[in-house]
Amino acid sequence: MTFKELNIAEPILKALTDKDYCIPTPIQEKAIPIALQGRDLLGTAQTGTGKTAAFAIPIIQQLMINRERTSHREIKALILTPTRELAAQISECFRDYSKYTGLRHCVVFGGVKQNPQTEELKRGVDILIATPGRLNDLINQGFIRLNSIRHFVLDEADRMLDMGFIADIKRLLPKLPLKRQTLFFSATMPAEIASLSRTILHNPSKVEVTPVASVVDTIEQLIYFVEKQEKKQLLITLLKKEREKSVLVFSRTKHGADNIARILSKAGIGSESIHGNKSQNARIRALSNFKSGKTRVMIATDIASRGIDIDQLGLVINYDLPDVPETYVHRIGRTGRAGHTGLALSFCSQEERPAMNDIQKLTGQKLHVTAIPA
User: Fold this and answer.
1) What pLDDT was estimated at residue 341?
2) pLDDT confidence of 281, banded at 50, 70, 90?
């Protein structure tokens, strides 16, 4: 099936063609027809499945078709997402897909000065992408009104729960019009998220793709048994061997990410770290450098990595194994996207063996042990 067969409007098709997108992913194929009908949707899908386009395209199309010619634009679509990086990523998608439609969008998040964001809001926007904290701040200051919202997207709901945003969401809901379309996405469905979905969705259609336990077949997974003090040299050796690839390295802690960056710098390997203690401008700059290829190696913590979305990322390295096995699936899903093959390497110390066992139990796959290169 192609996007044209999904009855996508010509201006959006042209934008998709510019980006060389012709074949929808499974979630796009399932979700777009439902969303185009204006129905509520409950989608179970993880990062990397193409869910941003699954909600962005139908929202853009409905706003384009039902455009009202008024002197002042009012916000008609709200996309709520947990992290700044993901908000920026979604904003890029709306920019790409809507560039021939005349629609305006704006992204607001904390960690940066609000004045440029409020100035953009004053000029009028059709679509708003926001994180909960900054959104509530701007509502309380009178810069944002939600009474004209027709489409509401709650993205990565389980991550919202992890980050303590559920109370913010519940405070926000009464400010939205009762008559609206709601699209609700979550990689997992813990009890509290399932309960929240029931309170905000009306007779939703359910779409489920790529369960959290599944690992993309195009990703080769290897594991090195290596003690903690030997990880540094192993990482340097591997990065010098894989000189042609962009590499995303995962650290469990912010301090660890900075430490790895210092070690690589001393070894003559250019890298940048990205984590929650970095300023927002530093994070945006580092992410831009990585996406453009200016920086070849990025060291990230899990939350900071949510906006890293690169179609042809060749290699992911788990310097530390995650405490939560589902996180491993999210991490390695950064590679092997859009039909490309990927490689995921994991370092496992003696104390991390239980975490490795939990990962194998979740995915139903045995990780292939490989010898440490000389």
Assistant:
1) 77
2) confident
Please say if the pLDDT value at position 330 is more than 60: yes
pTM for this predicted structure: 0.65
Dihedral sign computed on CA atoms, order 227, 228, 234, 238: positive
Confidence of residue 273 (pLDDT cuts 50, 70, 90): very high
